[in-house]
């Protein structure tokens, strides 16, 4: 267990409290009444001096001190766990053209389309890389950055979950643009190694950047590209609608993956080409990439961090409320 503060500079405010208290005492409160003679209040002045005002003031100072500590965000971090740290930045370029609707994969006993199995495999891959920055680029007729390289893998998983066919223009496939966009996201990152995983099920037939040009740029920057051709061999089932009973109708469409270009990209950049024609093969591919891009460095990282802010802000509010209630009721001052 380790006590830390997320915003420790707020603790400097505690040093100001004694100064503020001293300044307030120097000024002194103004008299509520002015008397021409003490005999008018002789009965009152014989009473024992009340400490109500001092108690109310102490409650206010205590509340303020608790607020300051709360704003410093006290935390308890614990459960250190050893993590493999490869120091690698990864960008995944994922094809989201409409051909990814072909249902030639299975997931947990059900037939699914290529995008669904790609998302599931990618989520598992991200879970295996907790110490690496991973980003995501999606492309169809154009390429877009879905998530910049980040260590916030919870955010990345949410982005992956939201990917759906039809959300971008997927009439054609701009492999070169997708690769170039991924290269650009890694260009300014300073890391020991930078890699791109490019997944596609078609051929480059859109975009202004040829795949070979994007591959040359990756090579010049020292970015390694692993390419994956996704799709069965021969004919793939593509849903064409449903009948009156809700059953899907399929047509058989030829699988047309430009393996020559994908191999050339991988060879040029020092990566490797893979062909994923079924679910198990795709999982093995990601597992192999995971093992190829590892180092032996090890770091310790806190497994959890518990925020304690409300344990200070809550009592501070309670003391402030108590001071207000007492000041307006049993210890109410004369106007």
Number of domains: 2
State the fourth-level CATH superfamily of the largest domain. Answer: von Willebrand factor, type A domain
Mean pLDDT: 84
Approximately how much beta-strand content do the residues carry? 25-35%
Assembly state: single chain
**Helix count, per DSSP?**
10
Q: According to CATH, what is the topology of the largest domain?
A: Rossmann fold
How many individual β-strands? 13
Roughly what percent helix? 25-40%
The biggest beta sheet reads: 6 strands, mixed
Strand order of the largest sheet: 7-6-3-8-9-12
CATH architecture assignment of the largest domain: 3-Layer(aba) Sandwich
Order of helices and strands: EHHHEEEEHEEHHEHEEEHEHEH
> Uncertain segments of ≥5 residues (pLDDT<50)?
45-49
Coarse shape: elongated
N→C terminal distance? 52 Å
